[in-house]
Design goal:
Order of helices and strands: HHEHE
Shape: globular
Structural class: alpha+beta
Strand order of the largest sheet: 1-2
Mean pLDDT: 77
CATH topology: Rossmann fold
Strand content: 15-25%
CATH architecture: 3-Layer(aba) Sandwich
CATH superfamily: Response regulator
CATH class: Alpha Beta
Distance between the termini: 36 Å
Largest sheet: 2 strands, parallel
Number of domains: 1
Number of strands: 2
């Protein structure tokens, strides 16, 4: 899969994910979108994915956001341990 296709798929996934935002997130001045993944464990696959999300956020914000609200992307690395918080076991 080419990097351009990966970025396009990541951006499409990001936009589709917006439809499930809780209404409380929309009431704020900034719409925060969080994502947890294993960036260190699978960098070859996930780095283009992350860059695609960041690019989508930049493009949406540059165009004025959604209903005048900007997006903020918050990403966390779980260090390939999905049952943990910030990479540390519970």
């Amino acid at each position: 899969m080419t990097q351009r296709r990966q970025i396009a798929l990541a951006a499409a996934s990001f936009v589709m994910g917006l439809s499930v935002l809780p209404l409380g997130a929309l009431a704020q001045g900034t719409i925060k979108i969080g994502e947890v993944n294993s960036y260190k464990a699978q960098p070859a696959f996930l780095e283009p994915y992350k860059k695609g999300m960041e690019l989508a956020v930049e493009e949406i914000n540059a165009a004025g956001g959604v209903n005048g609200k900007k997006f903020e992307l918050i990403t966390r690395d779980d260090n390939a341990s999905p049952g943990s918080r910030n990479g540390n076991s519970l």
